[in-house]
UniProtKB/TrEMBL annotation, chains A, B:
Subunit architecture: Homodimer.
GO molecular function, one term: ATP binding
GO cellular component terms, A-Z: mitochondrion
Protein family per UniProt: Belongs to the class-II aminoacyl-tRNA synthetase family.
Protein's name in the database: glycine--tRNA ligase
BP terms from Gene Ontology: mitochondrial glycyl-tRNA aminoacylation
Enzyme class, broadest EC rank: ligase
Source taxon at top rank: Eukaryota
Amino acid sequence: MKAFKLANPLRPLVGTNPASNFWKVTTKPTSARPFTSSHPLHRAVITNNSNKKDMATLTTKTGQTIDRQVMESMLRRRMFYTPAFEIYGSVAGLFDYGPSGCGLQANIIETWRKHFVLEEDMLEVDCTVLTPHEVFKTSGHVDKFADWMCKDPKNGEILRADHFVEAILEARLKGDKEARGQKVEEKEADPKKKKKKVKSEAVKLDDAVVKEYEEVLAQIDNYDGDQLGQLIKKYELKNPETGAEPSPPVPFNLMFQTAIGPSGQLAGYLRPETAQGQFTNFAKLLEFNMQNMPFASASIGKSYRNEISPRAGLLRVREFLMAEIEHYVDPEGGKKHDRFSEIENIELTLLDKETQLSGKTDVKTLSIRKAVEGKVVDNETLGYFLARIHLFLEKIGVDMSKVRFRQHMANEMAHYACDCWDAELLTSYGWIECVGCADRSAYDLTVHKNKTGAPLVVRQKLETPNVRQEWTLEYNKKKFGPAFKKDGKTVEAAIEATTQEQREAFAKELQENGSFTIDVPGVADGKASVGKDLIEIKYSTITEHVREYTPNVIEPSFGIGRILYSLLEHNFWTRGDGADEARGVISFPPTIAPTKVLIVPLSSNKDFSPIARKLGQKLRTLGISSRVDDSSATIGKRYSRNDELGTPFGITIDFQTVKDGSITLRERDSTKQVRADEAKVLEAVREMVTGAKTWKDIQGELPAFEAQELEVR
Amino acid sequence: MKAFKLANPLRPLVGTNPASNFWKVTTKPTSARPFTSSHPLHRAVITNNSNKKDMATLTTKTGQTIDRQVMESMLRRRMFYTPAFEIYGSVAGLFDYGPSGCGLQANIIETWRKHFVLEEDMLEVDCTVLTPHEVFKTSGHVDKFADWMCKDPKNGEILRADHFVEAILEARLKGDKEARGQKVEEKEADPKKKKKKVKSEAVKLDDAVVKEYEEVLAQIDNYDGDQLGQLIKKYELKNPETGAEPSPPVPFNLMFQTAIGPSGQLAGYLRPETAQGQFTNFAKLLEFNMQNMPFASASIGKSYRNEISPRAGLLRVREFLMAEIEHYVDPEGGKKHDRFSEIENIELTLLDKETQLSGKTDVKTLSIRKAVEGKVVDNETLGYFLARIHLFLEKIGVDMSKVRFRQHMANEMAHYACDCWDAELLTSYGWIECVGCADRSAYDLTVHKNKTGAPLVVRQKLETPNVRQEWTLEYNKKKFGPAFKKDGKTVEAAIEATTQEQREAFAKELQENGSFTIDVPGVADGKASVGKDLIEIKYSTITEHVREYTPNVIEPSFGIGRILYSLLEHNFWTRGDGADEARGVISFPPTIAPTKVLIVPLSSNKDFSPIARKLGQKLRTLGISSRVDDSSATIGKRYSRNDELGTPFGITIDFQTVKDGSITLRERDSTKQVRADEAKVLEAVREMVTGAKTWKDIQGELPAFEAQELEVR
């Protein structure tokens, strides 16, 4: 069999331990598919270079071990999300967001829009999802946006080639451990992990084979279809269900295809990213921006990828919300950013490519200024956005101890990309790529410009014209062609290719001898003699008033669903000790929580209900979402229910309220309460919900209330 | 040829005048397709029952005639919207929203969310666009969501059958007028009106033929495919380009189809509406709402329809944003609404079905209370939403003199719908259906429940159990069947069908005679004698603790793109007299305008620019979007540019600002200015942008400023 690299020196050998591999949900080709990995969210990566240390830190903010099954079951029960069309059996990779998830998503988006679009005067656009074939042909998606799949010839089952190889080899390694009597860490059954469940048999392998399997698994992301096919043959990998060897892997394009219009002739795709709509509108956007550079466009919208085997809940789905920025910058002048000084001292957790090359995952913490100065990050504009992404994640409540920026290695990036970093968030599924931030150079605008001829360029009026002296050529067209006959073009090309120095020499020759001789490979004797009747070479003054260039694109690209899921995991914890059943709490920041206030009448006393209704009305006027829970459950139970929804504040209406209008305000995480008159409490809520004050501030301002503490805790 | 109705008595004969037909962009089947028209936005109707009087009122708020071409060219230039992928030649029916349109859309959506979702505690969901085949098979879309198309056998051109018939007959009528020497009102060339451009020839028709053609055109919406095919044959309608008669019309399903997953086996569609995702989640939503009824779900998202011939700009497109509410209500108790009293005095402009039946389009203005009391509108809940829709349209700045609620006629509604009204907005394209509001009865939940077995029902715990006494039957199963042999089931059915009175009589007979005789049609002698060994009839107590029912759905359904377009037309006007070139203005309410404030430094003096930047920052903190225009254009020109974007306020920074911090505030429509210190002006802007105060209020509070008036006007 043909040799293919068993170990790619460019990829660290991490994740070889099956236990640390468990959460390795994907497996992204890199050198095999520069296109896709160049745009990180194209192939939403869940990287496998976590290590035990990372996973060991995987506890809630309160130090509890995360029980994902308990959490996910709660999230579904409280309708953060739910499999779409479940009453019809549901479809893999399609999820609906219920009221809680939808509200959370809306608040994340609103924060994103304020943090990026409004703050930086970005030009937001809303482009169509339906995209004609030609656009994605030009962008490269039609040819390269694919995964490798193979088919079981017996039962027709379709397998994702890399997942298949991985599953069988892992099962063999597990069987080997069993045979050796080693402890096998049992992987938890994960209903959303669709990777083929392969039963292991206790068969001892040679030590060399174990090592080889481990090496293959460590770089499973790097194989292309041929290589995966060779692995299947070499190791005789069979589908355990049928005993058959799958067919050789073929590429499967991940774009959903459809036909636009009644003829069925116009092929279209559902976009796998929002970027192309922004690029194709570049000329109009520049015009709208009155030709001012730099500027950015932005877009929030659904994208689609026809995953072969969707899994890991919200992390690998077929329909998802993206928010993307395309920042257009002059490639000359070092890509400076004029607001860089505002963020230069922000410290980021960086995992650079050198570290990864050395097989490590140790992060370093650097101010973004130092990172740019030290050339860890390529340029100021890219660095500016990395810091802004960091601030955004912090603002929405991501646990910043579970964030790192991982640099793409050379073999992960497309040839045209300058530098690329992913903001990865640590979850129980591993390090999840949630935001990509790439310097895509002039690639995108160039390919569309070349294909369509549209002027996707900036014409910069030069304040002082660019004046220079240079040797220029003037042909006597009528005589030049006939003089060289069929070699005319070749000779002309040779002359055009001359340097300024050569031209100066030729000009001298022309003046002195009336002609010059030039080497022209490909013509009769390899030389041509050009007389002064055919050409003039003059030292002229060139004045340029306009500079034309194709801007480079810095592209921060956010997978909202992944951020949302990670946010849930980062803010989830449970309350209650041995006696109690553990009760889930989600500690969203008040700005992000879907519902801000729970209104709880103490009992079903009929005096309470109009007060509750009016309170809701007043909160609405303040733009604060609230819900009334006037069910017959105990106050404690009603609060618990809303702790699961992440509702940060609770207002109790009791008999005292009827008497003097005072209400109690309870904070979700501490379960502490204060009591004051309605106006003061509402003002306190408003201030906390807008982020102007914290609960601690309010505790300093309003008197504590203890009476119902026992029941509420 | 077979007879088919040439005039449907249920449809008014309006729009027969070609002049009033011009803007009749579509043509919706009704009786032919009860399904689609039952859900009005399914088949976004542009109704043809406008009349000259309606169109005569078609002026701007300032009384100017609307020049649509001028307006639309401005809207594209200022990037409200633009054909998608224009550099690739664009695709019919796909539009991108630029920064202005995107901002406008976001503000409409935000207002919608506050007005409906937040105000009424609706459960917002975000369901997938991708939907498996089976769901739309059940809902009826797979079989019935279609238009009729035919094909030219010579050149393969695909024609929408109703449009084709319409175009040819209109051309013949026009030719007739020419031949008769009558004045022909020339239709303006409309680049977006894709209806076949048919050249008329001056050929005089018989008077009877003219009448027949006009009748056909008046009800072109009512024909099904067979009927359209018969019209083509009867009138010998040929494609002018080839002279060929098109093939018989066949249905073309308007859903975009795709394949989900790698096998290609799982057919899916892009949803043509957001409703089905809400219905299929009903049981979970009810659970989330703690079993409380009534409640509503809501959804904002893209929907897709593969129109055969998209046209009329944003009004008939293939990808569009919808906002839909599904309000679930108990069918018993008259569908009362407990907040009805809050809106009962709102007066609506109604075009009811009786008026339309009589061939008229005269509207009546009625309070919604009177409309419900008088049974013009079927019930309180439907009426409540009509009034809330009215308030919403008013809030976003729709010209309420160009709004009417048109009731569906019996032949437009599906058999299961109780009542349906469309909010139609008058534009230069005619009356545009922008919001549908239908009482869909229990149809949707019932079909999904029947198909899947999912409990899409409400189980209402009865406070006091429903206790009643009634005569019940108890069979001696072992003996009953054998006693009647093959007639057993028939006899049993006859007994089951008895009334309480009959059973009482039979019970008496049993007691007295030991048997009773019952008529059983279909058995030997038409009677059966049933003895007391076979059956007992007892007077028993029945106690029901739970009532189970399928809720009815009231569905307000908003086409956001259509509302957005109408809003643009309703707020557009031009400023400037003879001397000046007319300058466009869009008078959005401040709450809706995409950008709220334009910041204009008087000149390029370098003292101004830091002030402008700080001002922008302060406005951002207040959540108010602004733009700085520091170009070298005159102040007047810069304001003009932003009048075209509908920016309501302008702040000028001048030398006085540098001295004392005062700034001028200019209002877009009046071009009047006030001057005050920065804090006061910002507070004024905040109050106007949130809708708390009007410009008139502010003029009363802050001193007027006249100095730059001449330049600015």
